Amino acid sequence: MAERVAGPEIERLIQLLARLPGLGPRSARRAALHLIRKREELLSPLADAMRVARERIVVCAACGNIDTSDPCAVCADPRRDLSILIVVETVADLWALERVGALRARYHVLGGTLSPLDGIGPKELNLESLPGRVAAENAREVIVAVNATVDGQTTAHYITDLLSHLDVKVTRLAHGVPVGGELDYLDEGTLSAALRQRAVF
Is the pTM of this model over 0.85? Predict the structure, then answer.
């Protein structure tokens, strides 16, 4: 059995860092050592930023984005095109589309996809408010920008049925998004092409 080489505080830091996406135990140890070596430049400011984020970050009641204000900066922006609503799985997908800057629309964050095998049904997602929001904002087009996975396609079809009684065009992302691909990992050019070439369900 390997002996502990650091105090419990450092071990806890490593364990917490290892929970982050893309960081395993070895990467977490390297990150922790780097933070400790750069204590004044990195560790202290990071701790302060995390404390402030914990205290101030809220979920936007309108769209599900995260920000330090409610409504979020996207929903509060008067320059947004209210006729287009983009439905995304996660906040990471919203941020990915915003990086592209191809459309200045508003968003609706679902919080995941329908997945019966995982026990995720419509009630577990931000779906109930979608028809009312589309009607209240007089949206003419809803772009379903979900990942090209089985669960994503199931969710897209559910949304199409959910909005079928409304006078709104429902489109989806087109060429450029590979099957099984995730929006957050795509480059800006691919996302721009997918938004430009969206198609009706």
Answer: no
